[in-house]
Amino acid sequence: MSVENAPVVDVDEAAIPVEKKMYYRFESNDKKEFRVSELAIQQSETLNRLVEAMGYTSEDVENKPAIAIENIDGKTLKLVFQWCEHHKGEAIPVDDGSVPKIVEIPEFDAKLMDIDNGLLFKLIWAADYLNIVQLLNVSCKKVANMAQGKTPAQLRRVYLLPSDEEDEAAKRAAQEAQDPRAREVEEEFEERKRQGGNSFF
Amino acid sequence: MDQLLGKINLNESREINQPPMLMDMPKVVMKLIMEKTDFRSLQTLRKVCHSLRAFIDDIHPEAHIDVIGITMELNAISLFFKEIHVEYRRHEENSCSISCDNKLKIFEDTNYIDRFSMDFELILRNQNSILNLFQVSLSRVEIEDVDEIFRKMKHVLKSKKLPLKTKEVRFSIENHENVLSILPYLDPEYLKNLVINDSTICDRDLEILEIGGIMELEQWKNLDEIYIPTFRLRGSIKDFEYCSRMVASLENVRIEELMELKKTSRFPFG
């Protein structure tokens, strides 16, 4: 097992007040280990609930195996925890569904997300799964911004999307597999095509 | 127990082995991305493939438009919204041209009014927030086209699931029927200001606007401010008692009614 025991973000021990901080240990699916502060974990609703339920003491954290996150790789998890450490202690936005939220991407987040699209989608996936609201907001905003000023062909490349022809092929494959829903799906597609495919925009 | 709690596992279908694509994202994430995507990009995304178009049409991402302006000219309609200006123009026999961002496309076998109407419907489909202004203006137009355009706009507004919300509506029109094609289909709860101008105005006397049908509308009764400066109106000043500010030319004003209104209305009489 390769272990990355160093905290994701350098911690200035002298700056820590009397209260002792606890660092939890997490392990990615490719066996990379991360130490993450209690406060940073609070940014993730999923992890926060988990560590609360576990009720680990400082000794438990050191002596028990690292908490395994089996479906996120080390590269993605590193970004996730870097983000959580940087934004620890910040209020978690609540979506009350009212006014539209204008999402600004802070400089730190912009640099963190200066990565290839595959990794960016993994980061979004992880943020969704770990329920890190603001990371999900900024990463989705980044993906949304990527669409600006592009043609449909460019968007297919940017987002790795199928063309209509590939879409049709997938649909035919579904029919061949005799999916009972296939016919319905096709009718739905045709209806959509008829209704909305001809817009000028 | 510790082992159980200490392991997080997603279901198999969500396991990250391959680099994920946009369409692999959970529905809630896709919705979040689409809600953050600007109007124009969203329309381009709808053209990428059937499944994405179906998805976008299903989730109805809010359009958040602030102002919509529609201007009718001779054989043409201009549509303004979100810093976008599209012009639909009659082009030869039974075809039309559409221009936007200095790009022009010709569409054969289609009428410019139908193309406008289709886009107008598309824009309003996901507009449920409150507009600050909805403006409909006429300039020199063949009369048959005006009726057809208003009929189409009325159909789009009428068939919208939730009525269009706007704080203000401005008309520059020829007659009351133009107003009655639009006004009844705006949400009366949000509409506060009404402006009506005569699109045909010249140096002659003010034309009469038949306002009887308009005054019966719930929308009229909820207005705060009414500006109809370039028409003459038939009716009583009492019909304006609901609003706090008005500019209009009434044919006849009876002094008794004026005095009565002074006692009861919200007008700031000196």
From TrEMBL, chain A:
Key word Glycoprotein present: no
Region Disordered: start-end pairs: 166-201
Basic and acidic residues bias locations: 169-194
Keywords of this entry: Ubl conjugation pathway
Domain SKP1 component dimerisation residues, every copy: 134-178
GO biological process, alphabetically ordered: protein ubiquitination; ubiquitin-dependent protein catabolic process
Domain SKP1 component POZ: 26-88
A Pfam family annotated for this UniProt entry: Skp1_POZ
Involved pathway(s): Protein modification; protein ubiquitination
ATP-binding in keyword set: no
Stated family: Belongs to the SKP1 family.
Main function: Probable essential component of SCF (SKP1-CUL1-F-box protein) E3 ubiquitin-protein ligase complexes, which mediate the ubiquitination and subsequent proteasomal degradation of target proteins. Regulates cell proliferation during embryonic and larval development.
Database matches in PANTHER family: SKP1
Name under which the protein is recorded: Skp1-related protein
Organism: Caenorhabditis brenneri (Nematode worm)
UniProtKB/TrEMBL annotation, chain B:
InterPro entries noted in UniProt: DUF38/FTH_CAE_spp, F-box_dom
Coiled-coil zones: none
Organism superkingdom: Eukaryota
Domain (F-box): residue spans on this chain: 25-65
Name of the protein in question: F-box domain-containing protein
Species name: Caenorhabditis brenneri (Nematode worm)
